[in-house]
Design a protein that fits this description.
Elements lengths: L14 H25 L6 E7 L6 E6 L2 H11 L6 E6 L7 E7 L1 E10 L2 H4 L5 E6 L8 E2 L4 E5 L1 E4 L6 E6 L4 E7 L5 H30 L3 H24 L2
Helix pairs in contact: 1-5
Length: 242
């Protein structure tokens, strides 16, 4: 039987050996961290966010990942004059998702496009619009005025263009509108979206920290434990060598 002679070269680390060390030590720990994060400490991918629009400042700080809790909060605050409307934009949010809703607000709008009979008569005209429909409310359109009750606010890619979906007595339909660039409604809508973007940026940062801290957690523990053992061995050798 032939025995391979062990030399110093057997312990020299090459790129291939470092790669093999990574495969047998670090990679399994990363995979274990992914499994641990997915089943023990998952990050809430979908959030339900409540916004409170305001002319001076909008607030979208309150959120939960519990749909039932979100609905309970909404129901507790709804009344004959307060409803809720969805807010979104013509862009995706990536891996992280959210449902954003806000309480009823009133706007003075200019209708630029519509999809149904009663609403078509408003194209090119001014109207009052309430976003967020309390129970029992519906749009009213007369020859002289229009008050629309609608249940969503979508920010379109074209600046100062939005759409919504409105409901009347026996009808419903899509409407596209603008607001005065010099008015408070424009400031309200832009401030609301800025607050939403700020909240989403905070969420992305929080998720990035989660990925950097939680997912490789066992790798960090492995290196800490290895460092402690290495220091312990060095200390024992130092004591023995006096």
């Amino acid at each position: 039987m032939f025995c391979q002679r062990i030399t110093r070269d057997n312990f020299d680390m090459t790129p291939k050996r470092y790669f093999r060390l990574f495969l047998v030590s670090v990679l399994p720990l990363l995979l274990f961290g992914l499994v641990f994060a997915a089943f023990v400490f998952p990050y809430p991918r979908h959030r339900y966010v409540e916004c409170r629009p305001g002319f001076e400042h909008s607030n979208c700080k309150w959120w939960t990942d519990d749909y039932r809790r979100f609905e309970a909060v909404k129901n507790s605050e709804a009344n004959d004059n307060v409803g809720w409307f969805d807010i979104f934009k013509e862009v995706g949010t990536g891996y992280l998702e959210d449902t954003i809703e806000a309480k009823t607000i009133a706007l003075d709008v200019q209708i630029v496009e519509a999809s149904s009979g009663p609403l078509n008569a408003l194209v090119g005209k001014a109207a009052q619009m309430a976003l967020g429909i309390p129970t029992g409310k519906h749009s009213i359109i007369t020859n002289n005025a229009a008050f629309l009750w609608c249940d969503r606010l979508q920010y379109l890619l074209e600046d100062n263009h939005y759409d919504s979906y409105c409901y009347g007595d026996g009808w419903d339909g899509y409407v596209k509108f603008t607001v005065s660039l010099n008015g408070r409604d424009y400031q309200l809508l832009q401030g609301l979206w800025s607050e939403i973007e700020s909240v989403r940026a905070d969420q992305r940062l929080d998720f990035a920290l989660y990925c950097l801290i939680v997912l490789p957690m066992f790798v960090y523990l492995f290196f800490v434990a290895s460092g402690i053992i290495w220091l312990g061995v060095k200390a024992v050798k130092f004591v023995r060598n006096g």
